[in-house]
Design a protein that fits this description.
This protein is mainly α. It has 2 domains: 14-216 and 296-570, Sodium/glucose cotransporter; 232-288, no CATH class. Helices cover 66% and strands 5% of the residues. The chain has 22 helices and 7 strands. The protein has helices at 14-38, 42-47, 54-65, 68-81, 87-109, 115-123, 126-159, 163-214, 293-296, 308-324, 327-330, 339-356, 360-370, 374-377, 383-391, 396-431, 440-461, 467-491, 497-521, 526-533, 536-553, 562-570; strands at 232-235, 240-243, 248-252, 255-259, 265-267, 272-275, 283-284. It has a 4-stranded antiparallel β-sheet with strand order 1-6-3-4, with no helix packed on it. The protein has a 3-stranded antiparallel β-sheet with strand order 5-2-7. The chain is globular and about 75 Å long. Mean pLDDT is 81; it is low at 1-9.
Length: 580
């Protein structure tokens, strides 16, 4: 899942970009202010008093889950890698099937406010609760960091503002909404933002497809290599090393320059590059696109290295089980009135996500035809914003681009809001509560400021962090830690606190180490590279195995009240479990 990660020149007039961002910001703050009148109790702030209906909650989950990584990144992935990248939207959606089958209803019946609450109530262990709290905060901050940086880069793209401006704007709006009413406030905001994002991405694609049909319906694979249909000029926003699988030519600051497999060209930030019409488009060295039939065929080796089959299955496993372990996703199930409502919420979410993910791949396919030059600048994630201006005449292109900017910025705000609530809830209950006698609501608000400040400072102080790598790390850690804890905690009565703690430590350490080695050690060839780049296929089974083996070895540590707990998790609401 790649967030918007490359700044560039504006794709729409700056005034339109400012108006789009301002509109979504004002509406978000206005809706969030309603929560100030509705939220009065601690339960309102943490779980909206567990009174959110399935349809409303499903819309809020959709708004929270569909970050700019989905709104912009999926299209960019398809532009670069072709149909192999469709596993990303499939995995993001199908992960909720696992939630539906294994977790949704029992988790709601647990009566917990947060994941650490569930861990302690199930295993009667403060150490497991603390380990869960640390993981929730870590995963949340990992996810917030790319949201902050992506917002800065997106705002720079549409307005020319410094990257810090977007991060500060998102942080400020999110803090206002969460401080106003906690979970009640952001539920209203996120539900609205799902429908805004769906409208923003669906409406323009209708006009784009009509323009494509009127242009003779060219296909992405009409050329073996990505080829510019029209001359395209770009001012690079960062240093790029351009290369090409076949010899081609580009115009660099007015001079014709040869690029080929043995002749990479170093291009500095600020360089004006033109790809002539009919020329094969070079690509940034770090972004190697699929070519010809590879773009159309799954498991063709595009993006999977020497072991594409393993990479695909490991990716699917990470997405399925990583979704289950994301704290900001799970916290929303605590807001349902009961387990039945949690199941109905999950079903509606699957439908809402399925509808949304019909559209980003279309942008990616159209971008392969009309905007292949984005491969050169490393701006593949900008394809959603760039297409209306390239395919439609003014003012329609600018208007639809502004609508897409509105949806993209709503994605940053909604996802950040959910992450902040989940992190603030854990900080206030587990890491700050024992050190102060502050009222719970005031403590939650203090934790909210801390939850935003840390990733904000990290984003402002980082000149170049792999945004996609941080998202991948969050998914890998979530799949290798909370997934085993939830599945075994809900369905296996013999799980013990030492087993759960050992599994959390083993899964989290291995997944983190694998991705960090890939990030800082660079891509490696053969099996070592495949195993490190996509670790879920081995870290998730190891985490399960460690939890099971250590639990069996410490069978005497099974909680005394496990029978009553299991009945509460699986029995219908209202059943008396005092005799279990």
């Amino acid at each position: 899942m790649y967030p918007f990660e490359a700044a560039a020149t504006s794709v729409i007039p700056p005034a339109a970009g400012v108006l789009a961002v301002l509109l979504v910001t004002v509406v978000t703050v206005a809706l969030g202010s309603i929560g100030l009148r509705l939220s009065r109790t601690t339960s309102d702030f943490y779980v909206a008093s567990r009174a959110v209906s399935p349809r409303w909650n499903a819309s809020a989950i959709g708004g929270e889950y569909l970050s700019a990584a989905s709104f912009l990144g999926v299209a960019g992935l398809v532009l670069v890698g072709g149909v192999d990248m469709l596993w990303f939207p499939v995995g993001y959606t199908a992960g909720y099937l696992v939630l539906l089958a294994l977790v949704a209803a029992p988790l709601r019946r647990s009566g917990a406010y947060t994941l650490p609450d569930f861990a302690e109530s199930r295993l009667e262990s403060r150490s497991v609760r603390l380990a869960s709290a640390v993981l929730v905060v870590g995963i949340g901050w990992l996810y917030l960091l790319p949201q902050m940086q992506g917002a800065g880069l997106a705002l720079r793209t549409v307005t020319g503002a410094p990257p810090a401006a977007g991060a500060l704007l998102v942080a400020g709006v999110v803090v206002l909404n969460v401080l106003a009413g906690g979970m009640r406030s952001i539920t209203l905001v996120q539900a609205f933002q799902y429908w805004l994002k769906l409208t923003a991405i669906a409406l323009p694609v209708v006009f784009l497809l009509l323009a494509w049909q009127g242009d003779g319906s060219p296909t992405p694979a009409s050329e073996e290599y990505p080829t510019a249909r029209e001359s395209a000029t770009t001012t690079l926003a960062e240093d790029v090393t351009a290369t090409s699988a076949v010899p081609t030519q580009i115009v660099v600051d007015g001079a014709v320059t040869d690029v080929g497999p043995s002749a990479p060209v170093r291009l500095d930030a600020g360089t004006v590059v033109t790809v002539p019409a009919g020329a094969v488009v070079p690509h940034a060295e770090a972004t190697e696109p699929s070519t010809g039939s590879q773009w159309w065929l799954p498991l063709s080796g595009a993006g999977g290295g020497d072991h594409s089959l393993y990479a695909t299955y490991s990716l699917v496993l990470a997405l399925f089980f990583g979704t289950m372990g994301l704290p900001h996703v799970l916290v929303r199930f605590y807001t349902n009135p009961d387990g039945r409502a949690a199941r109905r919420t999950t079903l509606v979410v699957i439908g809402l996500l399925g509808v949304f993910y019909l559209f980003p791949p279309l942008y990616g396919a159209l971008g392969r035809v009309y905007a292949p030059d984005l491969l050169l600048s490393g701006r593949a994630d900008a394809v959603v914003l760039a297409l209306p201006g390239r395919m439609l005449p003014d003012p329609w292109g600018d208007l639809l681009s502004a609508l897409l900017v509105t949806g993209a910025f709503a994605a940053f705000l909604s996802t950040s809001s959910g992450l902040v609530v989940s992190v603030a809830g854990v900080l206030s209950q587990d890491l700050l509560k024992s050190r102060t006698g502050t009222h719970p609501i005031r403590l939650f608000r203090l934790a909210t400021c801390l939850a935003v400040t840390v990733p904000l400072l990290m984003s402002l102080g980082s000149t170049r962090i792999g945004l996609a790598d941080t998202v991948g790390l969050a998914f890998a850690v979530a799949a290798s830690t909370f997934c085993p804890l939830l599945v075994l905690g809900i369905w296996w009565r013999r799980l013990t606190a030492p087993g759960a703690f050992a599994g959390l430590a083993a899964g989290g350490a291995l997944a983190s180490a694998a991705v960090v080695v890939t990030m800082f050690g660079g891509a490696q060839d053969g099996w070592p590279g495949a195993l490190l780049a996509q670790p879920a296929a081995w870290t998730v089974p190891i985490a399960f195995a460690v939890m099971i083996v250590v639990s069996l070895a410490t069978a005497s540590r099974v909680p005394a009240d496990v029978g009553r707990t299991m009945v509460r998790l699986h029995a219908p609401e209202g059943l008396d479990v005092t005799r279990a």
